[in-house]
Amino acid sequence: SYELTQPSSVSVSPGQTARITCSGDVLAKKYVRWFQQKPGQAPVLVIYKDTERPSGIPERFSGSSSGTTVTLTISGAQVEDEADYYCSSTADNAAWVFGGGTKLTVL
Amino acid sequence: QVQLVQSGAEVKKPGASVKVSCKVSGYTLSQLSMHWVRQAPGKGLEWMGGFDPEDGETVYAQRFQGRVTMTEDTSTDTAYMELSSLRSEDTAVYYCGTTELLVWGQGTLVTVSS
Asked: Are B104 and A43 a contacting pair at CB < 8 A?
């Protein structure tokens, strides 16, 4: 098995840059996806293939990768970005795994 | 525009099975790779399994091997996830999702209680 490690919480003020990291050995050779989940809602894919943004996702969301750590960056975080964020990747056997999730507070 | 509509909430007794459906519209099921993810109350996301287009097979998370079955009915564009030998720890919201989990269903609450 393999694991993805995220900080449990990140806090920023509105307009600041929020950075959420995700670490795991598999990330050195596999892409990561990032999901945003607000209370009571289904998750939303905000980044895939490390840096790609699906249609409709604001440009302030970006992804980067360096070795075994990937980072989701929200430039100029807004109050509506407050949510739980999960990273996810795929192992060699095609099984997916999620990180434990990071609660982003914007206030 | 792909949309996924899941079946309604279920209450099951320990030891029973549950089968959740996920109806696809806007695309045909054969054009998509479907995945299933669950989320226990107050907990994180947990991948259960999904279709691997490279191998053309469904891959299951190791912890659910032998207990979960994911099937598809292409005549109705409906995907199914059946989980057997239910226990209280299986109480969760179950989601279906398309390729790369770009689109998600609304979720189905499954409650396991005696």
From this structure: yes
